[in-house]
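*** Query protein ***
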Amino acid sequence: MAEEKSILAVFSDLEPAANAIEHLRSLGIHDDCMNIISGIPVTEAMLGRPSQWTNVPRIALGGAILGFLGAGFLVFVSPYLYPYPIQVSSQAFVPGPPSVVVLFEITMLGMLTSTFLGVFLDSLFPSYRPMKYVPEISDGKIAILVECAVPEEGKVTEKLRKMGAESVQLAEAQHL
């Protein structure tokens, strides 16, 4: 397998970065070999990249189902666990309106908790391994990290400079 180099190009604005991604694709570099590093939220659509696949919606749905089942247990089963059930007038043993509130709130609690955990785990946070980063990103710049084979390094560097990169350098992993 050929040795790969990591090239880090810093752009001052979003549009030149998006144009550079298009030109890198024309050179035959796949989207999996490009990573966008930004201090501001940038969606895939803004850069013309394919949407990322994530498990967070499935995890949230699973949490909502577990929350609903837990709420169902609290609402419909727990009143019957008392040795001497308390009957209030002619009211049903499991009253409707309070049951709906408990079902909704605990379902949402399960969904929100599982969504938080899903995002936390899906983003591989926290990461203690060295990362490729340049301090200019914190000042609002956008960087493109390109993994390419050694023979293509010159073409990629030249193309990034032509597309308006402020700096193009070999990237080294460092502790943040």
Remarks:
- The helical segments are 14-26, 44-47, 56-77, 96-122, 153-162.
- The beta strands are 4-11, 34-38, 142-149, 167-170.
- Residues 4-50+130-170 form a domain with the Alpha-Beta Plaits fold (CATH 3.30.70.120).
- The longest helix spans residues 96-122.
